[in-house]
Design brief:
29 strands
Length: about 400
């Protein structure tokens, strides 16, 4: 009997060493979760209850439990290196079936799909028609690497100050080439529907009456529309145009683009003091943009960034949680599959409910505590030696009994 009991102890210690060895071997594996060997005593139980004086029959390995504690977040320079801070797993498409991982070492394949090192595609929620995300439909995350289309300018907002003591110009007939026919000017680059740039210049002309001005606008040197009145109250605040804006006459860029219809906004224009100042001139158009990079928000939204300063949402990463993560079935390559013990996957968005946040340009390191594993290794080694000594002692006792019979 002692032989069998000690043998079970040897097997248990060997299993413990195997689990510890695997933990130590994966101390630098991204997204790895350490395991813990769990043991249970064994009794030879028949139809009768075990007596209080009955000796046990040894030990057995009852479970190798995954430990899903948070690993350290280590920063990288790759925007598609993703780490989850908190609960959740990335969802991967493995030929139609789903796998789950904490290892966010992702890259883009030749078809534009975001994949892991084994080519499994990352799952996301697509952008819906209203600009939100269709959370009822999981799709493979694919990046659009095409150009960002241009948008024509339809508004220019001026934040200028016109001096209250200005006098009417010498030449009463406006001529954009004659500096004596206007008081001040400011220019801004605008864009047509094809993304071509044009220069819009506004000329401020003091009227004969106090607080009265007119504004003339040219695009590429061509006068657009008629003079527009701009008036101020005694406090220097804008009173005309009512509402603070007026619309220029349609302008044909002459390159096949749509007509430019531009509103001029003067809400932030004032008449204070004795100095002309341009605080801001902002237009809302932009030219064609080329992809410069990707950005992933803490809530998992993937944005494509372009040279024209625009960013476009491409999708939102899906995360999964489980009632019992320790019940997940290991699938290798730091991937897990759901099982009966884990329960069904609950899908959702980062930063909501139980789901953690996503850190872009970072990876979750292994949660293995190397010092603790080395201590456990020594303990398992001592256990193995003790059980081996037990076998040696039992053998000595058996040999003594045999010698008595002689």
């Amino acid at each position: 009997m002692p032989f069998r009991i000690a043998l079970s102890g040897l097997n248990a210690a060997s299993s413990d060493l195997g689990v510890t060895a695997n933990n130590i071997a994966n101390v630098n594996t991204t997204g790895f979760k350490e395991s813990r060997a769990q043991f249970a005593e064994v009794f030879a139980v028949g139809t009768q209850a075990v007596s209080s004086t009955a000796a046990g029959s040894g030990v057995k390995l009852s479970d190798v439990a995954q430990q899903f504690s948070q690993g350290n977040i280590e920063f990288t320079s790759n925007s598609l290196d993703l780490a989850i801070s908190g609960e959740g797993f990335f969802v991967l498409n493995d030929g139609g079936s789903r796998l789950y991982t904490r290892a966010g070492t992702f890259e883009v394949d030749r078809e534009g799909f975001v994949v892991n090192a084994n080519g499994l595609r990352v799952q996301s929620y697509p952008v819906a028609a209203d600009g939100n995300f269709n959370t009822g439909n999981l799709v493979d995350l694919q990046l659009n690497t095409g150009a960002n289309p241009p948008s024509a300018t339809d508004e220019i907002a001026f934040g200028v100050n016109l001096p209250s003591d200005a006098t009417a110009p010498i030449n009463p007939v406006f001529d954009p080439t004659d500096a004596t026919s206007f008081n001040f000017t400011t220019a801004v680059t605008i864009y047509d529907s094809l993304g071509s740039a044009h220069t819009a210049t506004s000329y401020f002309i003091k009227g004969a009456n106090p607080n009265e001005w007119t504004v003339q606008t040219t695009i590429d040197g061509n006068v657009v529309g008629t003079p527009q009145p701009v008036q101020f109250g005694g406090d220097g605040r804008l009173t005309v145009p009512v509402g603070g804006s007026f619309t220029l006459a349609p302008y044909d860029p002459g390159n096949g683009a749509d007509l430019l219809n531009v509103d001029l906004q003067f809400v932030d224009t004032t008449q204070f003091g004795d100095a002309f100042g341009v605080n801001s001139v902002v237009q809302n158009g932009f030219t064609t943009g080329r992809l410069t990079g990707l950005e992933v928000s803490p809530t998992g939204v993937i944005f494509a960034q372009f040279t024209n300063g625009q960013s476009t949402a491409l999708g939102r990463l899906a995360l999964a949680t489980f009632v019992n993560p320790q019940g997940l079935q290991q699938d290798g390559d730091t991937n897990w599959a759901e099982s009966f013990q884990s329960g069904d996957a609950a899908l959702g968005d980062a930063g909501t409910a139980r789901f953690g946040l996503i850190q872009s340009g970072a990876l979750e390191a292994s949660n293995v505590d190397l010092t603790a594993q080395l201590v456990n290794m020594i303990t398992a080694q001592r256990n193995f030696q003790a059980n081996a000594q037990m076998i040696s002692t039992a053998d000595t006792v058996t040999q003594t009994v045999i010698n008595i019979r002689r």
